[in-house]
Amino acid sequence: MPMPRRLNFLECRLAATPGLVQQGAQKTVHADVLRICPDCKGRRVRPGVAASSCGFCRGSGQVLRSRAGAQAASRVCPGCGGRGLQAQQWCRRCGGVGLARVASSMQIKVPPGVQDDTVLRIPLQGDLPEEGTQKGDIYVVVAVQQLDGMLRDGSDVHSTVSLAYPEAILGCSTEIGTVRGRRILTIPAGTQHKAVLSLPGEGVDYRGRHGTMYRGSHHVTILLQLPSSVAPVEKAILLELLAIERLQNSG
Ligand SMILES: [Zn+2]
Ligand SMILES: [Zn+2]
Q1: Known InterPro entries for this protein (predicted)?
Q2: Contact between 112 and 22 (Cβ < 8 Å)
Q3: In which domain, by residue range, is 218 found?
Q4: Is 171 part of a structural domain of the chain?
């Protein structure tokens, strides 16, 4: 019986932010793992089809090879590839093998202080090598990644924008880099220091359950910069501002 190429381990790259590195985290990882085929339930034939044996090997999956001067030896049947079933009856999803790759999500505990390229093991969540046997393990490679001032956290991306305080008070727009290219970020008037503005759908793609594709978000943390010294003209304006503030507060 031919089996799909079996993986000893699956590698999932998981991006880690500095916060995750410090505190550790529970993370969800996604992988396509070998399971009993959900279409044929491991019967290997198309649903609703009655199985009948391959005409070449009569269902054994093996045929005898005889060559002049050599002893007869059995080999995999060329008609059915060892499946023992007629090709037109094979389950479409698994090709008559009985096992198929199924999208699966699993939890992994990332320990505090995790380092780049650490390998974490999720026991017994990996490939099912054969029906009735034990599932293999999944190995997750943790990657601490930083790209052009952007931090990846799974499908979400984080970055920061520094603003002068008048920009935050009055509102403004600025161009930022995302994994999908340059985008205009609109900063509303009255934005506070360390406020987080999100751009949905500007993150990284990931495959959810049932193979559906999703896209993460880009989150921007606003950092306000206060000047350590000001020019005389700025000082004059600030003094005027202060006077207005005091007048308003006393009134
Ligand atoms: Zn199947
Ligand atoms: Zn055959």
Answers
A1: DnaJ_C, HSP40/DnaJ_pept-bd, HSP_DnaJ_Cys-rich_dom, HSP_DnaJ_Cys-rich_dom_sf
A2: yes
A3: 145-251
A4: yes
Q: How far is the CA of 139 from the centre of ligand 1 (A)?
A: 26
**Nearest bound ligand to CA 84?**
2
DSSP 8-state symbol, 45: B
pLDDT at 199 over 90: yes
Domain assignment present for residue 54? The answer is no
Reported confidence tier of residue 168, pLDDT bands at 50, 70, 90? very high
Residue 246, token pair as written in the block: 């005091």
Q: How far is the CA of 66 from the centre of ligand 2 (A)?
A: 17
How far apart are the C-alpha atoms of 57 and 76, rounded to whole Å? 9
Would you say 163 and 172 are in contact if contact means Cβ atoms under 8 Å apart? yes
CATH code where residue 183 lies: 2.60.260.20
8 A C-beta contact, residue 156 and residue 20? no
pTM: 0.52
Residue 178: both structure tokens together: 């995302």
User: How many structural domains are present in the chain?
Assistant: 1
Q: Compute, in angstroms, the gap from residue 174 CA to the centroid of ligand 2.
A: 67
Ligand nearest to the Cα of 35, by number: 1
